[in-house]
Design a protein that fits this description.
The longest helix is centred in the middle third of the chain and has 15 residues. By secondary structure, the protein is α+β, with helices and mostly antiparallel strands. The chain has one domain: Aminopeptidase (3-Layer(aba) Sandwich), CATH 3.40.630.30. A seven-stranded mixed β-sheet has the order 1-2-3-4-5-7-6, sandwiched between helices.
């Protein structure tokens, strides 16, 4: 991206939009079938966010109510739009929405291999609360929580 003022617009997205978007993110080894989106998001409060730059979807973040907290399930930014504040804008919106809807915490998992997500979350006052080790260490999950 060029060094110019970048306008990032955040709006509510759809399951169909998310299904297409996450298939375009290279770090995901597999994509969730659309049925998984419906299964997780049906019958629970949820939020699907889309980030736009110049009318193009460049990032998405999805969360839903789980275990009495808001669970930030999946999110990504397209590689050519990283480092310009898209993930921060999505996180700011999600946290504000969760506070407004009276959640007192956000819970999430990230994989060891997603260093930038771990760094972003630590800088946003998430705390590490657990670890799920996998045979392939890079696929192990780091559990995080932020009190709102």
């Amino acid at each position: 991206m060029q060094n110019k003022e970048i306008k990032i617009d955040i709006s509510k997205g759809t399951i169909e939009e998310a299904n297409v978007f996450f298939q375009e993110v290279p770090e995901f080894l597999y994509t969730h079938p659309i049925e998984e989106f419906h299964k997780r998001l049906s019958d629970v409060p949820h939020l699907i966010l889309s980030a736009y730059v110049d009318n193009n979807v460049v990032g998405m973040k999805i969360g839903y109510e789980r275990l009495g907290m808001f669970y930030s399930w999946i999110g990504a930014v397209k590689p050519t739009y990283r480092g310009i504040g898209v993930a921060k804008a999505l996180s700011d919106y999600q946290e504000a929405w969760a506070r407004y809807n009276q959640y007192d915490a956000i819970f999430m998992k990230t994989r060891v291999r997603f260093h930038s997500m771990l760094t972003l979350n630590l800088s946003r006052d998430y705390r590490i609360i657990g670890f799920e080790e996998k045979d392939n260490f890079e696929e192990s999950r780091i559990l995080m929580k932020k009190k709102l």
